């Protein structure tokens, strides 16, 4: 594509912000707009010198751009989209533009699944990066749904090498393309971590979700590979008709890639990874949680199949630094540790709290939840949400984000969640917003507590407000 002015509507979405940076590096003029921008992507955009126009307005399209990328959260009625349609400004989706401009003549490795995509994509990218120290041909381009701390960014584009590692999102592509984003990427090899019902705003039921993943699997060529989790009947069903080679991973004795002797020590994990019944490597990861060891195993399996040496895999996983907003320590004040985690689904919440139990054994665990994702704002998973949150010692629930956007009969009732938790013996409370939560819990927190803030959004600035309140409490006492 010759140098153009590209405008992105919804630029603060993780993938959209990454695309903005990729286009900027290609020499294009990039502008974008959003509403309620929040870190980490707003920080990444500003660091790249890409301004964020707020709010959406027709004036943001002046001067007229050559091309508009419409984010998948944008729908008819958006002030900018209406101008694009009225004036017939050329438009496309994020996923389509990535395919057309960045994936031609590339080796495409796509990480898909209801959970674990971002972390696994980051791990796989880091393995390739470490391998490139010995063989420059492994140097990866990548697109990750979060800021990978080993790289300090969510994307990288290299012109001279072929590997391109992508997080494959099953969410829809745009208002004019309701298919999943990952159907635009045509993987040479893929990882499938989990398949569960999610995104209740666009999928009618679990069968609809499985259909989407089956379509993704059907795109992998015969010469390709699918690395598939072994303990999910849904994954098994989605992989059943693959034309490519399927390699299962997990704890099952019959799986090609099998974890054995998994231990969590000092906030990290150790395990023996076996391949076809033989020891492949003894692996260490500076992250706790069974789910993280599984993610690392999937990344190791795909990398090994591409010819990356076991020594590079061992080194990369041992030096992996996680992803922002995935079990990220935001502050430690007076012995109180504040964790930020991108919670979007009850299963993800369960695994996050289990990992924190392993990392911070013996410490009181306080879970602070904002029901914000399209799944958590609905009552479809109310029972599962209660089960997941019960792993904490104390639970604080905020009001449902933008509740008016959810049909009344589908809305989560946070009061029901709190009531059920209290009946189970888990101390739980409900508060309207971040300010009320900070005022309520600041006086009760004590040294040794671990506070897990669970939200996939800005949560009213609680990530800054709670540490500030704790520091003020310390200053008042001293």
TrEMBL record:
<feature type="domain" description="Mur ligase C-terminal">
    <location>
        <begin position="325"/>
        <end position="457"/>
    </location>
</feature>
<feature type="domain" description="Mur ligase central">
    <location>
        <begin position="111"/>
        <end position="303"/>
    </location>
</feature>
<dbReference type="Pfam" id="PF01225">
    <property type="entry name" value="Mur_ligase"/>
</dbReference>
<dbReference type="Pfam" id="PF02875">
    <property type="entry name" value="Mur_ligase_C"/>
</dbReference>
<dbReference type="InterPro" id="IPR050061">
    <property type="entry name" value="MurCDEF_pg_biosynth"/>
</dbReference>
<keyword id="KW-0132">Cell division</keyword>
<dbReference type="InterPro" id="IPR036565">
    <property type="entry name" value="Mur-like_cat_sf"/>
</dbReference>
<keyword id="KW-0067">ATP-binding</keyword>
<dbReference type="InterPro" id="IPR013221">
    <property type="entry name" value="Mur_ligase_cen"/>
</dbReference>
<keyword id="KW-0573">Peptidoglycan synthesis</keyword>
<keyword id="KW-0961">Cell wall biogenesis/degradation</keyword>
<dbReference type="InterPro" id="IPR036615">
    <property type="entry name" value="Mur_ligase_C_dom_sf"/>
</dbReference>
<dbReference type="GO" id="GO:0106418">
    <property type="term" value="F:UDP-N-acetylmuramate-L-alanyl-gamma-D-glutamyl-meso-2,6-diaminoheptanedioate ligase activity"/>
</dbReference>
<keyword id="KW-0547">Nucleotide-binding</keyword>
<feature type="domain" description="Mur ligase N-terminal catalytic">
    <location>
        <begin position="5"/>
        <end position="99"/>
    </location>
</feature>
<dbReference type="InterPro" id="IPR004101">
    <property type="entry name" value="Mur_ligase_C"/>
</dbReference>
<keyword id="KW-0133">Cell shape</keyword>
<keyword id="KW-0436">Ligase</keyword>
<dbReference type="InterPro" id="IPR005757">
    <property type="entry name" value="Mpl"/>
</dbReference>
<dbReference type="InterPro" id="IPR000713">
    <property type="entry name" value="Mur_ligase_N"/>
</dbReference>
<dbReference type="Pfam" id="PF08245">
    <property type="entry name" value="Mur_ligase_M"/>
</dbReference>
<protein>
    <submittedName>
        <fullName>UDP-N-acetylmuramate:L-alanyl-gamma-D-glutamyl-meso-diaminopimelate ligase</fullName>
        <ecNumber>6.3.2.45</ecNumber>
    </submittedName>
</protein>
<keyword id="KW-0131">Cell cycle</keyword>
